[in-house]
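Ticket opened by: R.M.
Priority: normal
Category: complex prediction / small molecule

The reporter submitted a protein together with iron/sulfur/oxygen hybrid cluster and asked that the result be attached to this ticket for the collaborator who will pick it up next week. Submitted input follows.
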Amino acid sequence: MFCYQCQETAGCKGCTQMGVCGKNPEVAAMQDLLVYVTKGLSAVTTRLRAEGKKVSQDVNHMATLNLFITITNANFDEEAIIKRIFATLEKKRELLKEVSDTSSLHEAAFWDSNDRSEFAHKAAVVGVLATENEDVRSLRELVIYGLKGLSAYSKHANALLQDNEDVDAFLQRALAYTLDDSLTVDELVALVLETGKFGVDGMALLDKANTTAYGNPEITKVNIGVGTRPGILISGHDLRDMEMLLKQTEGTGVDVYTHSEMLPANYYPAFKKYSHFVGNYGNAWWKQKEEFESFNGPILMTTNCIVPPKDSYKDRIYTTGSAGFPGCKHIAGDIGQEKDFSEIIEHAKRCAPPTEIETGEIIGGFAHNQVFALADKVVDAVKSGAIKKFIVMGGCDGRAKSRNYYTDFAKALPKDTVILTAGCAKFKYNKLPLGDIGGIPRVLDAGQCNDSYSLAVIALKLKEIFGLDDINDLPIVYNIAWYEQKAVIVLLALLYLGVKNIHLGPTLPAFLSPNVAKVLVENFGIAGIGTVEDDLKLFFGDD
Ligand code: FSO
Ligand code: SF4
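Result attached by the on-call engineer:
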């Protein structure tokens, strides 16, 4: 196997024996093949569109779910992945018949097999290392990882019956381009930026889907303690699953708690009305081994990040959507269908209530609409000098000890600074007593990693209010933590919006070749992180 798509990749180079995430070589191979057949499908759909033919939403959804399944920590179930490969090949076979001119289509458009014993052999020659030139490989993978993140966000919007054909058409076109040996390095760099553009569109689509369905996030104090009744813990990012779970648990005597990236569900008006929605339990994804144990009840994983479960609680894990783990029950349900969570609810009734691990409250809900409502206050604080700078510290959390940097950095920040965050990175500092500035909390949490879109919208609004020409003239600096491929699309979206000098940590991606890293450094000022002391000097000078 060879996989280097996430920040925790072995030795900052690549996982070759076994994934640090727990992905084994067999699953890695089937994920490589699923990406390859999705590229083939995309080559066919891209040709169909060029011929003026329509591609159905079902096919768009197939492409996005396939990529989503291959995101870090989402799906470890080899059999489920093999089923997706067969379904994709079948769909590709059908669509290929509709293509008038198949000349010059890549081999991936034609590759087919009804025999799963051929899959491992094919997977071995179509993985990441199939591209020999390391710069071309780096750029192709940068695009593919961005597209994986975009697929995840698209899928969540699709679940709320929102689609954007332009985003899907781009996604498939870009994926097909990663097969194309005639593309120059400059063309691939342009494709990277175009991916960022569609990243903005994809996040905007999801923002619209979420806020249309559930209202605008609002300032909320979230309980982090526990109740006395059995509970279900819901993790991942899918708000439609959250809605179905809340509805189906109502009046059953079972409470609902969010975990990790589902925390922001607490900020939505539509979810607040459920009195059995108790609050958030625990921290970021990587602490689940301890926290799932002490939760005592069943856990529903709606997306990544799954840590291979311990036997002691494995029978309490359920997956749905893109998520999967062998031996854990998967709850089916396509877009537009009501999922049946009754088995999880019955399971919860047999369990003890959660063991309390924390008490108190955390505050969040600072997505664009809420921040705009506070705009006068924020602008006054900036004008008066009460707020000197905003630091965007969104992104992901992870196991690496080096990530304690973010806790130390947050603690050491000057008291006249405000952290803007989104994604699970916040768990490194959202329980610190950082206080407020004239009533404005010093950590403003917009929501999930996709709500980084809100941070961009806020930045653009501030630029307008202050009458600036350049987003980089705002008193905002970027010190972002990344882990998996959703963070890649967020990064590409920020680059597309013209944001410069983003610091990315705790390490730079292994998939950036030295030359590609140089392009990012020279054109966008991308940099890694140093020590807290050095970085504070860098960001704040002698202020
Ligand atoms: Fe975190 Fe996992 Fe949301 Fe990621 S829970 S790491 S960037 O899936 O998507 O922030
Ligand atoms: Fe390794 Fe990350 Fe790939 Fe898992 S997703 S195999 S940890 S690079």
